[in-house]
Specification:
Shape: elongated
Low-confidence stretches: none
Strand content: under 5%
Helix content: 40-55%
Oligomer: single chain
Structural class: mainly alpha
Number of helices: 6
Number of domains: 3
Largest sheet: none
Mean pLDDT: 80
Distance between the termini: 58 Å
Radius of gyration: 21 Å
Number of strands: 0
Length: 149
């Protein structure tokens, strides 16, 4: 086996850990990926567990607010706490609150009008129902309504 630099080893452990996370329970895939990088599966699992534990410790053992009810707006989309939580979890992201101003009040070609138009074009094309089996609107329907699409 060729000697691997420490930086490469760290990258390969991360790669294996990411692959293992995607294929949880598929030990054959993990073993294959670990073998291709010259690592043992136990090292790959340890690396993954360490990364997960570090992430949990940073967040206080909870999932981020944008994934929980507290970070979601009942009328659709995320609330301020959810947006702040998402930015914390994803440094460098430019997530902003929804443009809730009615289209008639927006100046044509303004930044807000263009964001709204772009969101509506993308989100309207998403497949999936607008209502749940119990008759309530889905998160998709709520978001479209909030953005006045």
């Amino acid at each position: 086996m060729a000697r691997i630099k420490k930086a490469q080893l760290g990258d390969s452990v991360k790669s294996v850990a990411a692959s293992w996370k995607r294929t949880v329970g598929d030990s054959a895939a993990l073993k294959k990926k670990a073998d291709s990088l010259g690592l043992s599966t136990s090292k790959a699992k340890e690396a993954l567990k360490a990364r997960i534990a570090a992430k949990k410790q940073r967040s206080g053992g909870k999932t981020p607010a944008w994934q929980r009810k507290e970070g979601k707006d009942p009328s659709g989309g995320l609330n301020a706490k959810g947006v702040a939580s998402y930015r914390r979890e994803n440094p460098g992201s430019k997530l902003q609150m929804a443009v809730t101003t009615p289209p008639s009040k927006l100046k044509k070609g303004s930044k807000a009008a263009n964001r709204r138009k772009s969101f509506c074009a993308r989100m309207s094309g998403v497949k999936g129902p607008m209502r749940k089996p119990n008759g309530k609107p889905t998160r998709k329907a709520l978001a479209l309504r909030k953005w006045n699409c």
